[in-house]
Amino acid sequence: MLITISTPNLSTEYKQLIEATFEQSTSTYIVFVGDGVYAPALNTAFFEQLANTVKSTVESTAKDKPTLNLSFLSTDADTRGANLPEHFNPISHKELAAISAKNQHWIPLS
To answer: Which CATH superfamily is domain 2-109 in?
Structure first.
């Protein structure tokens, strides 16, 4: 599953959707694009809680371990001067295309 976030402000509904996706899917990618690169800074507590939830699930489950893949388009972050946490991975447009090709289900949040 690929979730692209292009808005800095995540509504309660968006947060619930992200949480539900991680509960249902073993491999979910969240990629912050455009103004979405500001979302991690504006929603720090949410993403820390999500990372801790996924980490504890991985530690307690042997099969179908969920993975948390948080990435951002490096050119968008550079252009906007956004600083993202270390556990968010910078990716290129080419890498985003590869992630897109690998995932059948996409959810754009804007």
So the answer is: DsrEFH-like (3.40.1260.10)
Is residue 91 classed as helix, strand or coil in its secondary structure? Answer: strand
Give pTM, 2 decimals: 0.87
Residue 8 CB neighbour total at 10 angstroms: 18
Interval 40-97: pLDDT, tens: 999 999 998 888 876 665 555 545 555 678 999 999 999 999 999 888 999 999 999 9
DSSP per residue, 22-52: HHH-SEEEEEE-GGGGGHHHHTHHHHHHHHH
Phi and psi dihedrals of 12, rounded to 5?
-60, -40
**25 CB-contact burial (10 Å; exposed 0-12 / middle 13-18 / buried 19+):** middle
